[in-house]
Amino acid sequence: MNPFSLIKEDFLNVKRNDPALHSTFELFFNYPGLWALLFHRLAHSLYQKGLRFLPRLISAVGQFLTVIDIHPAATIGRRVFIDHGVGVVIGETAIIGDDVIIYQQVTLGGVSLTKGKRHPTVENGAVIGAGAKVLGNITVGSNSKVGANSVVVKNVPADSTAVGIPARVLKRGYDNTPLSHNKIPDVNKEIFEYLLKRLAVLETAIETGDNAHIKEKDHELEKLYDNFIHSMD
pLDDT tens digit string along 83-95? Predict the structure, then answer.
């Protein structure tokens, strides 16, 4: 698609992703992420033609107006939505697929000064939560979620949830709803819940002498323990 078709699609995409939008008029004043994409689409098309100074100038103007820094060489797919957007940084060799949602203060940054691919790849349908830092030449798989303020330094498989510092993959296929940030599990809470329930089972067994009770409860506690173990991957 040419850059102008992509820009038109970006404008239409906001209506699909933001329930706070009440009129088309608001698009022109309240969506810095949308305008940052507009500047980037223009700068990127010129950058691909071998120009350097003009794309960087367009990028600088866009950064000044939107407080969003996107290198003109970065590859951004279709229907990407940068919500709120202030403080977002997207590095030179970053690749973002289609239907990705990125929230404010996100960094897709590098950890190396070497030439070549040094920024993340975010595949189709992924959601990067507010304040998350995704660093290095790693991949966030399709339809995955990165929790708010997480620091991701290794690959995140498709259909997964990653949260924490450093980020850990907690569960694959946890929830398919793009905006379900409230459903990101709290692994520390889960392991404490597991330990308290395990302690209660052991206390009951000691008091009653009924060891069969432990086996009955094992299956119930397996899910909590399994979630914690997988978070250590």
Answer: 888 999 999 999 9
Cβ atoms of 138 and 153 within 8 Å: the answer is yes
Cα–Cα distance, 93 to 120 (Å, whole number): 8
Find the distance separating the first CA and the last CA of the chain, reported in whole Å: 39
C-alpha distances in angstroms, 5 versus 8, 21, 98, 131, 164? 5, 22, 14, 30, 38
Burial class, 138, CB count within 10 angstroms (exposed 0-12 / middle 13-18 / buried 19+) = middle
Number of other residues whose CB lies within 10 A of the CB of residue 2: 9
The region that residue 126 occupies, defined by phi over 0 for left and psi between -120 and 50 for alpha, beta otherwise, is beta
Instruction: Tell me the H-state helices in 74-211.
Output: 187-208
The SS3 of residue 182 is: helix
Are 91 and 110 spatial neighbours (Cβ–Cβ below 8 Å)? yes
In whole angstroms, give the CA distance from residue 154 to residue 171: 15
Kindly report, residue by residue over 143-201, the tens digit of the pLDDT: 999 999 999 999 999 988 898 888 888 765 455 565 555 556 666 666 777 777 777 77
**pTM of the shown model:** 0.77
181 DSSP assignment: G
Torsion angle (degrees, nearest 10) of CA 73, 79, 83, 84:
60
Q: Which of 79, 14, 129 is nearest to 140 (CA)?
A: 129
